[in-house]
Sequence to fold (632 residues):
Amino acid sequence: MSTITVPSSVPHVTEDVEQLRKAFTGWGTNEKLIIDILAHRNAAQRKVIRETYAGTYGEDLLQSLQKELSNDFERAVLLWTMDPAERDAFLINEATKRFTSSNQVILEIASTRSSHDLLLAKQAYHARFKKSIEEDVAHHTNGDFRKLLVPLVSTYRYEGPEVNMTLAKSEAKILHHNISEKTYNHDDVIRILMTRSKAQLNATLNHYNNEFGNAINKDLKADPKDDFLSAVRNTIKCLTSPEKYFEKMLRMAINKTGTDEWALTRVVTTRAEVDMKSIKDEYYKRNSVPLDKAIAKDTGGDYETMLLALIGHGDA
Amino acid sequence: MSTITVPSSVPHVTEDVEQLRKAFTGWGTNEKLIIDILAHRNAAQRKVIRETYAGTYGEDLLQSLQKELSNDFERAVLLWTMDPAERDAFLINEATKRFTSSNQVILEIASTRSSHDLLLAKQAYHARFKKSIEEDVAHHTNGDFRKLLVPLVSTYRYEGPEVNMTLAKSEAKILHHNISEKTYNHDDVIRILMTRSKAQLNATLNHYNNEFGNAINKDLKADPKDDFLSAVRNTIKCLTSPEKYFEKMLRMAINKTGTDEWALTRVVTTRAEVDMKSIKDEYYKRNSVPLDKAIAKDTGGDYETMLLALIGHGDA
Fold:
């Protein structure tokens, strides 16, 4: 569930656009006005605002924002203003140009989006970068990470609720066998995780837990320093309990000495309209501190105001 | 270009449906009438016919046809009547249940369809089989074939005309290096063939030819009995010259002792509305016999009449 609040009577789009333009001109930038408008409009409304702005002033709203804003606040507003599919495409492209640690971002987007949303991101990627997510991710990675990430961004997973219990049992056994043998990168492990529907995978992992006594992610902790193992664990978490995965991302971003704004901004802007409500519940359960308090303590200024507006300040 | 002929004034759909029903009832089946209607309606028209038929008689037209027809003629009419995306889904599903020789069908469909058409086939597969093409293909294959076929059915390729010449040169070198070393199944070979756009791949392979003196498929003929090498060659042919690939399929199906009706029917029904015109031109160039003559010589009865109607008899 979404955590943003949209006023019960939203001003006409031309008024929003004029107010935004006003916020950019004159003495300094009116950051508060920008937040008041953009943080309180849903994706469809922001899309119309951006189109009307471009039609009226002959400039992409993202460019105007980029000129006026800076640092973490700029990144938060820009990511938020983008269309969700365009934002995913942008984040993946950015990740393919950075260090391998950014594989995490690719993994997260590919495995937490629905098949349809991932398809929209692929189409946005074609339109904007004139190439495919698949080729850039394949080019950016190698070895086991390529073996994991390329199918992950490629597969168009089935999303129905049907579960084949015979298959779940046989594949739980295959997973357990390979984990016991420490052949974590075995073709069959990759195949099962990368192609089965989330419902089917869930049945397989439940059976794994019942039959072999441990949750699979516990068995995959054999070597906590192994980056590939950690990627496999994260993939499983993203596929089966995305809100727990995102809670952990937020917790790690906030608890880190110096706060990881890059991750914090990404999680807040990409989840606010999707499942931030559940993520906040998870966060409170795990940390005994409401997420808004934790963010307020670690951030400041317009950046703080923007994030709190997106996660729904005060109603944690 | 399509080779079917649609009458300039098509009867109203209710009339088509009544005529079809008439063809099924009474003394024997009126095969000629079935061909006269179905082989001369395009995909959109057949779709409406099928919907109207189901609405009127409470039975799927495919089921009625299945009851009335038999053998090669039955298969040709059924495949033709299906919606193209449903047909691709059906053929892939059928292939995943047969011997590994049917890998050819999966390879052919995945690499000759546009990204959008392959996506439609994936959606049709979800709807009909309650699972994904990716999981069934991955489950059906192993080793090098899995390494080739799973990304092939998964990738959502970019389809724009843009070509990066620097990339083409560096990737031609990577391909040549691996072919010289006989590491045909190298990750990078698979990555390049499976993820690059068709335009980019074409530039890479042209550069390969110019720089290293041979077309890549010639260099890939090192061992003509190696099934994997043959699959790689077919993939390249499908991606870069589909009409040449289909010409060869037809030639082999027709020249085989006993005719391979399974392949013949598939190629004719899947390409009639797409590029059969170019395939016929290729066929005549390569065999000095028009395709319709060759088919007429090798087939007979209603099956022959149906195929000839689809490839446009007499205008080769």
Remarks:
- Chain A has four domains: 13-69, 84-154, 165-240, 242-311.
- Chain A touches chain B at residues 119, 122, 126, 130-135, 138-139, 142, 146, 150-151, 154-160, 162, 187, 191, 194-197 (CB under 8 Å).
- The CA atoms of residues 80 and 269 of chain A lie 5 Å apart.
